[in-house]
Amino acid sequence: MVKASGKRKQRIKWSKLYTFSCLNPRTTDNDAPNQQLLGQPGFSRVVFCNQPELHKIKPQKYPSNYVSTTKYNFMTFLPRALFEQFRRVANLYFLLGAALSIPKLAPFSPASMITPLVFVVGISMLKEAIEDWSRFLQDMDVNSRKVKVHSRNGSFVEKTWKELSVGDVVKVNKNENFPSDLLLLSSSYEDGVCYVETMNLDGETNLKLKRSLEATLSLDDDVEYTKFQATIHCEDPNPNLYSFVGNLEFNNGTYPLSPTQILLRDSKLRNTEYVYGVVIFSGPDAKAVRNSTRSPSKRSRVERRLDYLIYVLFLLLVMISVVNSIGSALVLKSEAAMWWYLRLQENADSPLNPSKPVTSFFLQFVRSLILYGYLIPISLYVSIEVVKVLQAMLINKDMRMYDELSGKAVEARTSNINEELGQVEMILSDKTGTLTCNQMEFRKCSIEGISYGGEINEVDLAASRRMNVDVERYRISIDGSDSTGESIEMFEYSVAEADAKQAVLGCDHAIENSDIEHRRIPASGKEPNIKGFNFRDDRLMDKMWIHGSNVHDMIMFFRVMALCHTGIPVEDGNSKRLKYEAESPEEVTFLIAAQEFGFKFCQRTQSVMFLQELEPSSGIEVKREYKLLNLLEFNSARKRMSVIVSNEAGEIFLFCKGADNIIFDRLADNGRIYQQATTAHLSNYAEDGLRTMLFAYKKIEVVEYESWNTLFTKAKATVGTEREELLEHASEMIEKYLFLLGAVAVEDKLQKGVPECIDKLAQAGLKIWLLTGDKRETAMNIGFACSLLRHDMKQFHLVLSKEAESIVCLCLAFQAVEEDILSQIRNSYQEIVKGNKKDVPSALIVDGKAMEVALRSEISNQFLQLAVMCDSVICCRVSPKQKALIARLVKEYTGKTTLAIGDGANDVGMIQEADIGVGISGMEGMQAVMASDFSLPQFYFLERLLIVHGHWCYKRISKMILYFMYKNVAFGLTLFYNEIYSNFSGDDLYDDWYMVLFNVLLTSLPVIALGVLEQDVSADVCLQFPALYQQGQRNICFSWKRIFGWILNATLSSVAIFTVTIYIFSPAALRQDGKVADLAHIGTIMYTCVIWTVNCQIALIVTHFTWITHVLIWGSILCWYIFLVLYGMLPPEHSQGGFHILIEAIGTAPMYWIVTFLVVVVTLLPYFIFSIIQRSFYPMDDQVIQEIKYGRTDVSNKPMWLREQQNSRKRTQIGFSARVDAKIRHLKERLRRTKK
User: Which domain of life is it from (predicted)?
Assistant: First the structure.
């Protein structure tokens, strides 16, 4: 049976069935200008078919089919990677410091300056190399795929993709990707037709029909290519996916080519056993590759601001160095000559030479630059790199972002931009495979004005719960009859208030019995799970529809569903049910649904279709034969499809399906019986985000059909520009006076949790744009399904007229088109400005052709100004290149952090161009994942990635940098104060080992704990209060106000540490025996105060203590004392002033411990007082929540906790919650009006 079905399938000549030009390309007057361009600049490519050796020498030498997406290669890695590293301002500063340390001008050895720089830069370059190596492995996987290539003797041998050359003839089998851009020569079908899936290119799930030229149809076997030769003249490589200009010279004839014959790289062969094609564009010349972009280097906003902070600290460093140098020079010139005991005149090379004040000034300036370099420590970047890697590891290990179905978890593919996750304001999302599952499901239908197949939608259910907690389901009808279909709303009321609600409505409503409702919706699990069929209604299932009052119209409805299509049945060996292959997934869904209702489409030939129908009178399935007379196919212009068939009795019927506005215009006066009810159902289905289509039919008399068919046959045979017009006129003649049967609603199934995720992201203040290659109607349906659109939204459509589209295609009169688009933009903008004053939500829907014009530099700013003002933006029919361009322009125009998320190769450019690229590891391969910064198994994990981990990472990195700056400024300024205090003597206050260990051991580990483990609130609270995310969007935690506040805090701390220590120990004895403190003692005591102060300061900053945090903070202080003991045990020639300094000198002095305690209290008191005042009178959102949580008010006063959650929500116009709010307002208004 399977084999027989396959043979029948091969014998079908699709071109005999199809009518319009999608399968009958002809040269028209519109094509003539394009054909005349051949041979001119931009249209100069020549391809010698089956002669690839001619393309390995000039002038027709073209690149190989090898494709690389790596950032570096062997030759460019070192210079480019070094350039990337020294783009960082701090690295340039450290390079300068290392260079200055070589002439021995610095107080430290050159090794201590050069080694850290080499280590930091080396680690960063190693990370870049590892990330680029993964891209190289992905390229190797793609370039090593196999394809069959003609080997000049009539046989085809397997070669890797990278070995292909222009001119090669290849054979591609079913479900294989095309290795390059090919010219279709023939296929397994006799008339050269094939189905192509372009999901990776444009995101569309509908299969595209391609057809070869009639001249090459005979090349349908391997041996036919032994002597095959031809020449192609065509356009040069370009990124335009939807156009192609060229001709084929073959057998002394010239044949024009169009996009219908072009098979693009990265698209896939479907429903066709094999095709033959010749390579036109290879490797980097392929249109898909031309739509891709190089991997960019991404830096977060925090890191970019850190560069400016480095400028500020460097300016402070220069000022301190200048003051130090001037002071030193003045002291040398005025007083140093009297210091004969220092013998400064005898050492000419000394930086302190009174006879050379200018030289001394310069040398002292260089020395100061290096000495006070602790203001800009290289360890900051080491710590940031370590923290980001650990943060990425924690993100990867989050089990709440693990998908059990796929066995995949979230993966942070780069750690450079973790904190950027907490500052996202714009999300650019793909549709197919990202928001949707690439699965269609039959959900609902309306037959004879009665709606079948479903409960009330989630929005109505949520609205009813908000208005009335104790709910049971009722359906309120105007006249008590469900058959009218004029239902007010699927709305829920409580039993106690049902009568009162009816009185408010002011009319006699019928409340259907609950047993009827339960009869409609079977218990969960009663029906088998059938892929593509998610319909539950006992009135139709299990042959129950045969008991209806008007069975005839139901039968006709199911016949339209089972006959009006281009599908092919494929037997499933494991089931009695048939599977189907068709041009669009909707057709497959209709066929599956018809099969479940008792109308199984089981076989087709060139002219006959066979149905296994359920006979209502007997309940027995009967096989019937329908002769296919004509097929008027669906296309974007017609928006309908019709078949004309005759049954076994010789009766002729036209079955039609199409868009509602198209079908309604073609109904007969007596065919509108169900129009009002069906219109109401369509509105409900569309609000649920379902794709809808109307079914209609009419009976045609034999005489009428014969007369029309004569005219139609004549129109099909016409050659020339008037052919399309004649065919359209003929179809208009027959597709009228129809009788409406009903409507169907199909769900483009969303991924799990998508509406809830979008709702939460909207509450967090993020704007979401939908960028898809699908047509406008499909994109809008998904917009409604995931709550990006609402029916009360003011929709602005930016589209080109048909005349303008033809102008764009012919590259003529662009100015007129731009004026048209600019006028639409201005008018829409004015309406939005007026609407915003009335709080009217708005949405912008842009078509791909209009987008192409709107993104031109002349009017792009006006377009973006309009788009940014809208609450929701949906861009349809956009190419991969346009997606990337939109991402770049939005990022540049708004200056906001932009995140792009997608799952296919067509999303790679957008993912790379955005500030953050997220790839979905779904069904469309790994291209998007490999190009992304983060990968997710499901879209809804984006909620936790941003609102929880993004918020945490942003606050952690911000706190970490501010604290790092605080501790180093406080430490470095004590050195500067000592220089002033000692008359710029140049004496080192601290031992060299103290200086080294400050950032390496004694203060570095608590900083890492802060950057990895800190949480202002828990993950659950982050999700309950999404408005907390706006702290990152407003950059509150790393604002200049915060930065200068911490610099001021560090300055006050350093002053307190130095003055208290100096003015206590300078005039008094250190110990009871009268011994005073020398420089080594003072330095060690002051250093102890610094260690205690900065570690206690971080304890005040931390809001989430763990045992690790405690160990690292207090352990760092303990390490200082352990070091002093061990260091003091070394011989004096090694420990110098530190010999037994703790055990015998300062440790035995009570004043040492008292001063340490006093300094810590005095130093931290200002910050402590400021924190109390700020939290008491000017608390931030997270601080309020902390007080509630720590006071356990969330448990003792649950209503208050819920009220705080409600108040924290950002008012938004998109998302599920916004739709529920709008529905409640709508229902209350209707109740109010009805009451009046």
Answer: Eukaryota
Q: What is the pLDDT of residue 1121?
A: 92
Measured on CA atoms in the order 574, 576, 579, 580, is the torsion positive or negative? positive
State the Rg of the chain over Cα.
Answer: 38
Q: What is the pTM of this model?
A: 0.80
Strand partners, 609: 604, 626
State the SS3 of 168-204: CEEEEECCCECCCEEEEEEECCCCCEEEEECHHHHCC
Give residue 507's pLDDT. Answer: 34
**Residue at 322: amino acid letter:** V
For 402-432, the pLDDT digits (tens) are 988 888 889 888 888 899 999 999 999 988 7
Read off the pLDDT of residues 30-62 as tens digits, 9 standing for 90 and up: 444 555 666 567 778 899 998 888 888 877 788
Count Cβ neighbours within 10 Å for each residue of 368-387 and write b for 16 or more, e otherwise. bbbbbbbbbbbbbbbbbbbb
Which of 636, 633, 662 minimizes the C-alpha distance to 727? 633
**Inter-helix orientation angle 1040-1065/1079-1101, to 10°:** 140
Catalytic residues: 430
DSSP-assigned letter for residue 401: G
For the chain, what percentages of helix, strand and coil (3-state, to nearest 5) are there?
50, 15, 30
Residues in the chain where the model's pLDDT stays below 50: 1-11, 21-32, 469-527, 810-812
96-113 residues labelled b (16+ CB within 10 A) or e (exposed): ebbebbeeebbeeeeeeb
What gap in Å lies between CA 341 and CA 344, rounded to an integer? 8
Three-class DSSP category at 50:
coil
474 token code pair: 């009722």
Query: Residue 362 has what pLDDT?
Result: 80
Which candidate, 721, 452, 694, 689, places its Cα nearest to that of 564? 694
Nearest to 264 by CA among 207, 181, 165, 203: 181
Burial of 11 (0-12, 13-18, 19+ CB in 10 A): exposed
* Residues 727, 632 contacting (CB under 8 angstroms): no
Task: Look at the block and give the residue holding tokens 């409600």.
Answer: 1206
| CA 166 distance to own-chain centroid | 35
